[in-house]
Amino acid sequence: NAGVTQTPKFQVLKTGQSMTLQCAQDMNHEYMSWYRQDPGMGLRLIHYSVGAGITDQGEVPNGYNVSRSTTEDFPLRLLLAAPSQTSVYFCASRSIDREVLTFGAGSRLTVL
Amino acid sequence: QQQVKQSPQSLIVQKGGISIINCAYENTAFDYFPWYQQFPGKGPALLIAIRPDVSEKKEGRFTISFNKSAKQFSLHIMDSQPGDSATYFCAATDSGSARQLTFGSGTQLTVLP
Questions:
Q1: What is the mean pLDDT of chain B?
Q2: What is the pLDDT of residue A96?
Q3: Residues of chain B that touch chain A, judged by Cβ-Cβ distance less than 8 Å
Q4: Is the predicted pLDDT of residue B100 greater than 90, yes or no?
Q5: Is 70 exceeded by the pLDDT of residue B2?
Q6: Which of A11, A15, B74, B104 could bridge B4 with an S-S bond, Cβ 3.0-4.6 Å?
Q7: Distance between CA atoms of residues B36 and A66, nearest Å
Q8: Greatest extent of chain B over all pairs of C-alpha atoms, in Å
Q9: Is the separation of the CB atoms in A108 and A23 below 8 Å?
Q10: Minimal CA–CA distance to A50: which of A64, A32, A36?
Q11: Selected residues 42-81 of chain A with any CB under 8 Å from a CB in chain B
Q12: What are B66's strand-pairing partners?
């Protein structure tokens, strides 16, 4: 079982470019989320979803869009990349009635 | 604002020593306190968790101590090993927030051989 799969693992963008970070889970989890990890800042919630067709903002949503068309997939879109979005991004999922999050391996994004 | 404050930011311990990481929280509605462990290049993974109805939980060499009145909880790693070298995050959540986890800022632990 793959768990949570994130692609790509590494990406370099120029300011103003757009891209999508992909996240897929095979555990039939209702809840999926995106976090960014920055030194000294811990893990900060960007967006989350409690099921297909339902998304909501987290602590740091500006500059990011999400959609949830299927239970399995939860892509994160950067429309106009900025250097402040240089970070490591983690997708995580869990069953709606449990607290344990399963994280992907992360996607390291650099915006020049 | 940071609802869960974690210290220290980094910690160096000799093999066999005790590692202690502390967290403090403000929100009295928090009712679940997990610790996540993250190795370099990997995503965080649940290590151990506690609910406020107990003051201590032990799993092998890892122990959470919880002080509800002080709104503090800590992770103790006994007989620390080089394989324990990782980043540790405390977190907290409550039932009224769709069980969103609020994470601390992380502690980078290095255990010297």
A1: 94
A2: 84
A3: 6, 9, 32, 34, 36, 41-46, 49, 89, 93, 98-101, 103-106
A4: no
A5: no
A6: B104
A7: 25
A8: 44
A9: no
A10: A32
A11: 42-45, 48, 50, 56, 58
A12: B73
